Amino acid sequence: MEGRSVEVLLLTQADCAYCHDAEGILARLSAEYGFVTTILDLETLKAREIAVRSGVMFPPGILIGGEPFSYGRPSERKLRRAFERRRQLLGR
Known about the structure:
- 45% of the residues lie in helices and 23% in strands.
- α1 runs parallel beside α3.
- 23% of the residues are buried.
- The chain starts with 6 loop residues before the first strand and ends with a helix.
- The chain has 3 helices and 4 strands.
- By secondary structure, the protein is α+β, with helices and mostly antiparallel strands.
- The chain has a 4-stranded mixed β-sheet with strand order 2-1-3-4, with helices on both faces.
- The protein has helices at 17-33, 45-54, 76-89, and strands spanning 7-12, 36-41, 61-64, 67-71.
């Protein structure tokens, strides 16, 4: 996705195993798809406001391009499909 990187936001919580999994998955995929992940802890007011507005019920919450993607146990396959679709839409 060179030239038009998408914003990926990860909402996390301390002592959350799925949050650690999500960080690892997003780190691997960012190397392949060229996006940067911003991580916000749900202990912060900003993160809680985003979670409520986006309907993120529990961590980890993943937003892609400002749109809610998933919450709870992350799926690398589902994320990869989303980035592949985005890559195809951008003609890359």
